[in-house]
Design goal:
This protein is α/β, with parallel strands linked by helices. The chain has a single domain, classed as Aldolase class I (TIM Barrel, Alpha-Beta Barrel), CATH 3.20.20. The protein contains 12 helices and 8 strands. The protein has helices spanning 16-30, 47-54, 80-86, 96-102, 106-118, 131-135, 139-150, 156-159, 180-197, 200-203, 219-223, 240-247, and strands at residues 5-9, 37-41, 59-63, 90-93, 122-127, 163-166, 207-211, 230-233. The chain has an 8-stranded parallel beta barrel, surrounded by 5 helices.
């Protein structure tokens, strides 16, 4: 059985003090919450203090990006060994904002995924289509390409560490959300692609999140779908009560 994973992507929000206050209150709110894996993804400069506050608890730490080399003359970049050293367990790779604003490609996503896995970091690989691609009927073509290229050359022995996040770009930060049925259709399709790449048995183990304007008032109906194994949450992860309610989703 796949353990649900709820991850909060803080993007470019929260100072050190705000981040420490958030995770302190989140720990108090959730207590020893079981049955769902909870992850927070602060900005790079906040990772260490948040890691110190989370130490010994049940909330995992993620970075929002990673570079594909271990070290070198790459000004401004952060390597997998650095993220492991600071306490990260997960790393988000290929988020649509990285693709749209910073030139991330399927090729660089693949390089980052393989480097992350080689350092025992669990990649959260983001895939999803733009509105114009959706309107052209290209959703499945785009998602298939991104999944296949993102996983190209990945060893089946490490593939179970991967989380895939389906984030339709037209739904991120817009207030629009794919219906539970739409999300399920694409996420079932993704699981089929993973099964073709590796094996159907491995595909049943790998978790697939949904992301795109996830909120407390739509998480329950999303999580009832058989191929939605959690959520990658943006804006709604910035408030403790909102994020805690998403973590405590109910399968009705």
């Amino acid at each position: 059985m796949r353990i649900p994973i709820i991850a909060g992507n803080w993007k470019m929000h929260k100072t050190v003090g705000e981040a420490i206050d958030f995770v302190t209150r989140l720990q108090e709110e959730l207590g020893e919450w079981e049955g769902t894996e909870v992850v927070v993804a602060p900005s790079f400069i906040v990772l260490d203090p948040v890691a110190q506050r989370l130490k010994g608890g049940t909330i995992s730490l993620a970075a929002q990006d990673v570079f594909w080399e271990e070290k070198g003359a790459y000004t401004g970049e952060v390597s997998p060994p650095m993220l492991r050293d600071v306490g990260c367990r997960y790393v988000i790779i290929g988020h649509s904002e990285r693709r749209a604003y910073f030139g991330e490609t399927d090729e660089t996503v693949n390089k980052k995924v393989k480097m992350a896995l080689s350092h025992d970091l669990n990649p959260i690989i983001c895939v999803g289509e733009f509105l114009e691609e959706k309107e052209r009927g290209d959703t499945f073509n785009v998602v298939e390409r991104q999944v296949k290229e993102g996983l190209r050359g990945v060893d089946a022995g490490t593939a179970r560490q991967i989380v895939v996040a389906y984030e339709p770009i037209w739904a991120i930060g817009t207030g629009k959300t794919a219906s539970p049925e739409q999300a399920q259709e694409v996420q079932s399709f993704i699981r089929g692609i993973i099964g073709d790449i590796f094996s159907p048995a491995l595909a049943e183990v790998i978790r697939i999140q949904y992301g795109g304007s996830v909120k407390p008032d739509n998480i329950d109906e999303l999580m009832v779908q058989p191929d939605i194994d959690g959520a990658l949450v943006g804006g709604a992860s910035l408030e403790v009560e909102s994020f805690a309610r998403i973590v405590r989703f109910e399968r009705k």
